[in-house]
Amino acid sequence: MLVRTNTLWNDLAEVQNEFDRLFRRGLGDGVSGHFPPVNIAENDDAYVIQARVPGLAKDDLTIELEGRKLTISGEHKRVEAEYAREERATGRFERSFTFRHALAADKIEAVVKDGILTVTLPKAEEAKPRKIEIAAK
User: Would residue 110 count as lying in a domain?
Assistant: First the structure.
């Protein structure tokens, strides 16, 4: 059983929680200010993005490619409850990344496992480094 004593401090804490919630959800466009942290690795053949998305399933995420720009979006749904403290970010998020090399769009793979979204973006053949043979004359 939760026992609450109404004091000025409790009222101020509730106001602070409301402001925090407002800013976490974002203002205006419905996209929150919370973005999942990512690591992006690059090798000769591909880029690999790893994004931390705890609690999200594949159906909660969307990945779109437009040219060299990849956009990851999703939503952390809020569970309605009477919280004593609420720190987990909720709401929609969207992140975009533009790559300097052309991508092989038909070979992109994405997997979500243990709260990590891994997106492998193979480079298009023309973007991969090539060794040029030198002819002797």
Answer: yes
Q: What is the tally of structural domains in the chain?
A: 1
Q: What CA–CA distance (Å, rounded) separates 70 from 49?
A: 10
Q: Which runs of consecutive H residues, i.e. helices, occur in 4-114?
A: 8-25
**pLDDT per residue over 59-100, tens digit each?**
999 999 999 999 999 988 878 888 888 777 778 999 999 999
CA torsion sign for 55, 39, 68, 35 is positive
105/10 Cα distance (integer angstroms): 53
* H helix intervals, the chain: 8-25
Domain assignment present for 6: no
Q: What is the pTM of this model?
A: 0.68
pLDDT tens-digit readout, 99-132: 999 999 999 999 999 999 999 999 998 867 778 8
